[in-house]
What does this fold into?
Amino acid sequence: MQNLIDPAILFFAFGLLAGAVRSNLEIPPQIARFLSLYLLMALGLKGGFALAASGLTSEVATSLACAVALAFIVPACGYLLLRRYLPGFDAAAIAATYGSVSAVSFITAIQYLETNGVAYGGHMAAAMALMESPAIVMAVLFANALRQRATPMVTVGGGAAALGGPGESFSLRKVLHESFTDGAQLLLLGAMLVGLITGEAGKHAMQPFSGDLFKGMLAFFLLDMGLLAARKLRELKDVPRGLMLYALAGPLCHASLALLLARVVGLGAGDTTLLMVLAGSASYIAVPAVLRYAIPEARPSLYLGMSLGLTFPFNLLLGIPLYAGVAQRLAGS
It folds into this structure.
């Protein structure tokens, strides 16, 4: 309940309300882009400063290994399940969306932990970066396999040759390049490196930027996300009810898997919470942007409507405090 009276969360709820009543309130796209870049830069700096203080320990390596494992397990399991009920391309796209992560959900979870005095490792920002791309790569491979099965073959000079199909102009190299060199991800990692190099002196110098402004910037950005989520809610008429259930139950299952993994390796409450948030979130910016090019056969109304219209509001309003409460109960504060 405490999460619901946080100013940033209340601005998100206000954005939902303003969007629901079709208000003309809007944040210019350039401002929204700046806010997202600011939040990633501030998050990276915070992570780098924390890493400079703690050092690269075995716990850091264990946390990152858990994040990478989840980045492969979640989309693989999602695809195997969804493939039984959906066309292959839609299944691959949704699996990629839910196998990747939401930076805004992660940043909100960081703010929640700081507000409640729960310690966490700055290296979890690196875990977020590591978890973004594997799901995209796996979805591309799934889609290519589907295309190869669907492409008819003709005999040419005694050998088989594929006729031009939907993947004819598709460039796996381009998709992989975009996945691993995404500007937002590079900014996050670059800011972490700056924080790691400058340490305590850098933290003191950047405190007005990465500390004092952070809460207000997050509230402003969540207002815009509320307006955007309200628009996507209106598009859910195209999403079958079974997929609406997956959009809510899937994150809980993924977060539970992260909790189990964190308990096995003995992560603390803060890192466990963040790992659960990462596993239980779904991308609605980076992955959909790549999927529109990589898997044009998939329906954006499904994977984007689910992630932004249902999963993102659920995690922001209910999921984060739920994950944190369970993690603190089982892992200790």
